[in-house]
Amino acid sequence: MATKLTQATVNRAAEEHPPGTQLYDAEVSGLRVVVGKRGCSYKFVGRINDGTDRYVSVVLGRTGDVALRTARERSTELRLALRRGEDPRTPKASVPTVAEALDRYLEGRTDLSPRTQQWYRQKIEGPLRSLAKLPADRVDRETVRALHEKITRKAGPYGANGAMRVLKLVLNDVARTHDLPPNPVSRAVRMNKETPRDWAIPPAEMPEMWRRLDAMEDRVRRACWLTMLLTGLRSNDARSMRWEHLDADGVLTVPSPKGGEAKAFKLPLPRMLVQELAAVRDLTAPLESPFVFASPTSKSGHVEHFARTKNWPYAPHGLRHTWRTMALEAGVDLQMAMVLLNHRPAGVTWNYVTRANLLGPMREASERVAGLIAGYRGRTGP
Question: Domain 203-374 belongs to what topology?
Answer without folding.
Answer: hpI Integrase; Chain A (1.10.443)
